[in-house]
């Protein structure tokens, strides 16, 4: 079986930058917003949204006592919440992670077709084959993978922990087989000063950030700082003032004194960055077409599948329609994926407390 190449991945829709909203559209969106609020209340549900979802979805999470965060925080909050119905507005691996950690809860997703190119690039059958070629390596999978790939892994990490985990495993003398993002793989190898066997996957959004375009933007905006997610190419990372997960980039903007930032991550994050720093200016970093993938801006085509109408639908529908929104993970896969996910949460907690035991 051959690996799925980036050029063979079909994007869910032709993404075009939305035109400014008409008064009728705004009115329509506001009534949908009110209906979604009602549905969340009626079903006693928790809305967990990723930073890359549309601003109105993030606002809905804020106004209903929900949560907005990076993928690690989403996993933690879903697990700790006492609520039994959780709506995950993000991409499929985030919904699956919530289900693996809380199998007794009902995990709903606005659109089950919300994939991720990293997940699509990394099929379980290929992982089994590559694992067999590297029997002594410790398999470390990025959270952006399917439940089945997680079940084949020793560790799961998100971008906020990846370098620290590589460093930890290096300290234990372990060889790493890293899945599936090649740029994050090279970032951890460079920063933890270790070598990794690296899968060739890419994020269609972050892979598109273009060093030449960004250099030009820096010249045109002297004093602007560059924020970069580590799924971006090494030549973009090399220009950065801050490299980190979505939450880490957001935290940087709150604690830093610059007035302008060029942001090399998905544009949904602008909602929280602007809210936290109303006086600052945020500019989207330049992109270029890559390997046959051409986006109209730094917008994840799969995150864009989340909408207000679909949030209402996933809560209010019944029967088959409802089942189409409910995340299911087969018991055997869940059992295998739980161990590395629990390890990730334990590692994150130990890092926070300042002492990581050597035998996690
Ligand atoms: P974070 O872990 O930083 O939220 O990233 C998730 C993601 O999908 C990045 O593209
Ligand atoms: Fe996946 Fe990239 Fe979209 Fe994040 S931005 S969900 S890594 S395709």
UniProtKB/TrEMBL annotation:
Its EC number is 2.5.1.72. Its cofactor is [4Fe-4S] cluster. Coiled coil: none annotated. The keyword Transferase applies. Pathway: Cofactor biosynthesis; NAD(+) biosynthesis; quinolinate from iminoaspartate: step 1/1. It holds the Pfam family NadA. Keywords: 4Fe-4S, Iron, Iron-sulfur, Metal-binding, Pyridine nucleotide biosynthesis, Transferase. One of its GO terms (biological process) is 'de novo' NAD+ biosynthetic process from L-aspartate. GO terms for molecular function: 4 iron, 4 sulfur cluster binding; metal ion binding; quinolinate synthetase A activity. It catalyses: iminosuccinate + dihydroxyacetone phosphate = quinolinate + phosphate + 2 H2O + H(+). The keyword tRNA-binding does not apply. GO terms for cellular component: cytosol. Gene3D superfamilies: NadA-like (3.40.50.10800). It is an enzyme of class 2 (transferase). PANTHER family: QUINOLINATE SYNTHASE, CHLOROPLASTIC (PTHR30573:SF0), QUINOLINATE SYNTHETASE A (PTHR30573). Catalyzes the condensation of iminoaspartate with dihydroxyacetone phosphate to form quinolinate. This is Quinolinate synthase. It comes from Candidatus Anaerobiospirillum pullicola. The gene is nadA.
């Amino acid at each position: 079986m051959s690996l799925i190449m980036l050029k063979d991945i079909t994007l869910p829709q032709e993404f075009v930058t939305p035109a400014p909203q008409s008064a009728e559209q705004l009115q329509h969106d506001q009534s949908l917003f009110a209906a979604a609020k009602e549905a969340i209340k009626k079903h006693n549900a928790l809305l967990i949204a990723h930073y890359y979802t549309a601003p109105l979805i993030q606002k809905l999470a804020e106004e209903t006592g929900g949560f907005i965060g990076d993928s690690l925080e989403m996993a933690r909050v879903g697990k700790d919440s006492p609520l039994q119905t959780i709506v995950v507005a993000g991409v499929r691996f985030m919904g699956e992670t919530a289900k693996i950690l809380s199998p007794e809860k009902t995990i709903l997703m606005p659109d089950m077709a919300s994939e991720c190119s990293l997940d699509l690039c990394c099929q379980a059958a290929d992982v089994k084959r590559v694992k067999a070629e590297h029997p002594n390596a410790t398999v470390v999978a990025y959270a952006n993978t399917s439940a089945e790939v997680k079940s084949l892994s020793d560790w799961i990490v998100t971008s906020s922990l990846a370098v620290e985990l590589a460093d930890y495993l290096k300290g234990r003398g372990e060889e790493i087989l890293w899945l599936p993002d090649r740029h994050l793989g090279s970032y951890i190898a460079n920063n933890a000063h270790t070598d990794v066997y690296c899968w060739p996957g890419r994020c269609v959004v972050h892979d598109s950030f273009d060093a030449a375009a960004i250099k030009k933007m820096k010249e045109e905006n002297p004093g602007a700082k560059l924020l970069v997610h580590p799924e971006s190419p090494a030549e973009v990372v090399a220009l950065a003032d801050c490299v980190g997960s979505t939450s880490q980039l957001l935290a940087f903007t709150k604690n830093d004194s610059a007035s302008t930032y060029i942001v090399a991550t998905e544009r949904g994050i602008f909602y929280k960055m602007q809210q936290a720093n109303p006086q600052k200016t945020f500019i989207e970093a330049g992109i270029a077409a890559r390997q046959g993938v051409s986006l109209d801006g730094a917008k994840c085509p799969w995150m864009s599948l989340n909408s207000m109408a679909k949030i209402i639908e996933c809560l209010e529908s019944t029967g088959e329609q409802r089942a189409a929104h409910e995340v299911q993970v087969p018991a055997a896969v869940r059992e295998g994926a739980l161990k590395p996910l629990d390890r990730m949460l334990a590692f994150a907690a130990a890092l926070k407390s300042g002492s990581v035991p050597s035998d996690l």
